Amino acid sequence: MLRRLQMTLSDSFKKLSLSKQADSTATKTLLFKSKKSPVPILVLADANSPTSASDIGKKINLKDLRAADDSLWSSLLKATKNDASPFSLDSDCHIVLDQSLSQSTTPIEVKGVDGQFTSIDANTLTEILQSNATKFDKLDFAAAPAAAPAPSNAPAAPTSQQRKQAGKIEGAAEVAVGIRKDVDFPNWYTQVLLKGDMLDYYDVSGCYILKPWSYNIWQAIQKFFDGEIQKIGVENCYFPMFVSSRVLNREKDHIEGFAPEVAWVTKAGESDLDEPIAIRPTSETVMYPYYAKWIRSHRDLPLRLNQWNSVVRWEFKNPQPFLRTREFLWQEGHTAHIDHDSASDEVDYILDVYRRIYEELLAVPVIPGVKSENEKFAGGFYTKSVEGYIPTTGRGIQGATSHCLGQNFSKMFDITVEDPEVARKARAEGRQLKEGEGKKFVWQNSWGLSTRTIGVMVMIHGDDQGLVLPPPVASVQVVVVPCGITAKTSPEDAEAIEKGAKAISDRLVKIGVRAKADLREGYTPGWKFNDWEMRGVPIRIEFGPQDLKKQQALCVRRAVNPNQDKEPLPLSQLEEGIPKMLDRIYDLMFNKAKDSFNDSLEVVNDFDRIVKALNEKKVLAIPWCEEVACEKDIKERTENASDGDKDEKQPSQGAKSLCIPNDQARFGKIEHGKTLCVGCKKPAKRFALFGRSY
Amino acid sequence: MLRRLQMTLSDSFKKLSLSKQADSTATKTLLFKSKKSPVPILVLADANSPTSASDIGKKINLKDLRAADDSLWSSLLKATKNDASPFSLDSDCHIVLDQSLSQSTTPIEVKGVDGQFTSIDANTLTEILQSNATKFDKLDFAAAPAAAPAPSNAPAAPTSQQRKQAGKIEGAAEVAVGIRKDVDFPNWYTQVLLKGDMLDYYDVSGCYILKPWSYNIWQAIQKFFDGEIQKIGVENCYFPMFVSSRVLNREKDHIEGFAPEVAWVTKAGESDLDEPIAIRPTSETVMYPYYAKWIRSHRDLPLRLNQWNSVVRWEFKNPQPFLRTREFLWQEGHTAHIDHDSASDEVDYILDVYRRIYEELLAVPVIPGVKSENEKFAGGFYTKSVEGYIPTTGRGIQGATSHCLGQNFSKMFDITVEDPEVARKARAEGRQLKEGEGKKFVWQNSWGLSTRTIGVMVMIHGDDQGLVLPPPVASVQVVVVPCGITAKTSPEDAEAIEKGAKAISDRLVKIGVRAKADLREGYTPGWKFNDWEMRGVPIRIEFGPQDLKKQQALCVRRAVNPNQDKEPLPLSQLEEGIPKMLDRIYDLMFNKAKDSFNDSLEVVNDFDRIVKALNEKKVLAIPWCEEVACEKDIKERTENASDGDKDEKQPSQGAKSLCIPNDQARFGKIEHGKTLCVGCKKPAKRFALFGRSY
After folding, report:
1. Which one of B152, B209, B305 has the shortest CB-CB distance to A296?
2. Which CATH superfamily is domain A601-691 in?
């Protein structure tokens, strides 16, 4: 274990100084044992947090907790209690991390395995400890021990210490996210995903658990997409996840793009495999040998197959849930066509389905266009994409890609048919085809959309209270919470309120609204409000004694509702009013996101303006020559001119092309020969979107 | 490559003598080159097949084929043409295999890498060659070269030579399976799957491609199952496919069952991983650490999650499509409960959903029951299963399993809640809970169903003409084929027939029948009939001039219709008649399979009868003591008494317990203390099903 920890640490220390920093958080390491626990308990806490054995014991439900003696320190951590490092751990242990450390925005000072203090960021620290713990807890050491078991998603109330930290929200509700989106976006994103019940961190770095709340969104996307591709005759199938190295290496340009990230299986049980076998990073080379076999005549075209699967790309950049993960879910479509026309029609059709998934399901505006030579798919002919924009970071993000592979792969894999036109002509001329005459390599496409969609949606719509889900994909669109039941309420009235809440939900379910009555016992209405708010449910209906009397549902919109305005809706208008309200919520969300994207688009005609505009979080439309060297040059020059750390594991500060938008007219006019490229001053061809990106 | 081939060969030679056998097929190895092919062409053919370069060239569309010179033999195969082995191949090559060899039921004699002839079976030979070929073809050398390109699924016509072989069907239609189910079941199964367009063999041994025709069936099963589990509140999610070795090894009994088959990732790109990472063989240890984290109170119970994914079990037994594959698709449900009652209710509910999938969707009768101690899930409390039966081989087959894991895993992973009953009692007594009082380990279940379902369905319903699909899962339920259009037919009549066929299909689609008009050009109606027959479409409608005149659809049922009877259905009754006919087809299929299962069930009270009954392809219900040692003893004694090869890679000839059926009454009465176990003569507890199995 030691060796792995050191490796991981040395990676994460690249950007952090090894000397003690002024603006950093000091820590202490403690070790306990308990008769109730089969393993020792190691605690890493803020140096200022109260950490009595009895307080900690109450919080982790091990009331007989006592400090470890020297022999335990020495056997477990190979050190005395004064110079022990939590990273020296070499056997099973329950690790308890101070929650304030896991949320810290300043570097954390922890004793390293060499006995010296070293700096580490909160995410890395959490991940390392979690992945090495037999059992792992984050605890709020400052909070009083809870009297009753906390519901599983309820984080502890923020402490005064936490509120002092930058990015924390003063007076935030008990169960809100607790970190401001506009101040500490990366931590906000993590917290929203965790507290919104979308995912959990996992034992293997770069992999995440998709909980039902996010997986439901993926299923909604699947359902829509399957319907749209079925219309053009695409069928689903499943190819194995393993690829032999021989097949993987067939297309050289293509594999060059993926080779550094390919995961290799070399052992089964105790036996070494005779030949290592790769896990697919994408399936072009997996599938195309079979296309060569299956496509025997032009009558077999178009062949259109799609699969929903997971692929593995073992990236060494910092992982980020949904956006960059080592295993991710996606669909990959692979099709073969008689000619370029048929292939390119499909590229456009699929691209538009992708646009509709972003815009119509996720309320996320995207710009469709074609990728530059630099950014196109390795081994392909051209790539079209939809490009999104994250206002908080000012970065563009590729939404999905639809590639025309041309005939490159069909030549490599010998996927041919006899050209029916040539054959017809020969027949008309009354002659046989000559050897090889009319042999035609098919045209191919591939296109993919991944769970990244979900990450983009969260980044764009989420707010300081948590997730905000667009109605089309929310697995609960309306939650009904019975309210106002107190000790004074008569049992009859209480029952009438609960029944009324249930009846509202039942009526909505009947007309196809995904509604739910939250009748959980033991939680206050306020706690429920916050719970559903954090999880982003589009409409909350409060139903209390007054509402029962007035026969109304008090509706609170989650999205674009800064003052938490409540709208009463007569129960008689429920079936009409709620679907309308859901539509309005979608419009509000989409228009807000669209305005924000539009406001951040700037046509730039002067190179000096580029970095300034990037720093203002803009995406740039520039007249561009479309040459590879020019794109590289723009990226390099803007990277050098930008502030901030240069870290291979972080997204680049330089600008790269996002796409050349289909809709050119909105950016003005390129006069051929007159309008010059902003990068290199050669004649510009079209407007291209440039920006920092994920 | 050499080393791998030798390894593979030495495995498959275990059962085959190395000396030349009397009843075996001799072969010849040929080598060609062509200007049209980037790689040489190696041909392995029956020694008696005609193999002129020009004939072969025409068949593989390389008309300039010429024999290789000595230098090519030597560079490619490291030998002269007289002692070269096709297994010595060490670089890219197009391999062409004589189809009669790939279908041979006798051992095939091939030159081994040592220059000596060695025996090999057809499947292994095909797999080895296929997995080492850059391009692979099976060709019928005896058939005349085709004039036009063959449609992708059409195998060549059987030759006289082939018909002579055992198992081949005399006078079989051009596109039928060509191998009799009751004579050569393994080859029949492979051919039905290939020609029925269900799957294709793959480059990595033990992995198969699920083509849309089979994947659609899987999707139908998914849809049904998702609906049924949603009713009890199960939600779908996705856990990563990777498991750290630490987590995998947490539950010892459990991992012992899987360890020998776990695939390990040890490299990413060019880098060795610090620690090998396993690919999940199942997800208990993947998921349960998070259950421990997520379940904080009894209010979080039951927690019911399901995932649709693929798992990897690197088995070294002979792979068999759908039944035993190294990667397979399945669903795995994992749930946690407050007590045994809640858990066991769910085990039964899920078991019944599995039964319904087999019986109601696939028309496959199964017997639900509980597994013996020997056969239960490693680390679980008890396992229930549905057990099917393959009449042709007389083997039982486990259909799906629903496990109650008891508290074993929850103790291992520390998944606990405070018992609400104990807490309530303490409150009633006006006292606080004592330390650890009322701590309750949750009860857990896991349950899974895999694509094996599809294999069982094929084995049971398929016939000598190919697949037979049960209407509930057939992605095409009705195919309409326009007929009787000849050179004499007027263009108007031809159009009316085609339009009529299309109209029939449209009307059926409108009422929810999955219908399709086969209007493909360039294929005769006869070819289409056979094509859809091979693919198992439940109803074929022939629509010709007579039918147009009489305004009728001529319906031909695929299943249980030995004489290919045709039933005319007035077009006016289409919407009423076709759904009824589909229902009837389901009934016919299910009842036929059920009768065959019932006829093969025999209550056996005498040990000596067991092996005889097994040899008569029976499944036995025996009064049984239910003890582990007795089951092992029965297996051993029946194995020793059975004829046939003993081969680790083949299914055992011994009898093991399939399940202890829920419905005991059908087998008679066990008198406690009086009825004795057939195996060991101790008192019997219940009837158990014993049989040979997959």
Report:
1. B152
2. C-terminal domain of ProRS (3.30.110.30)
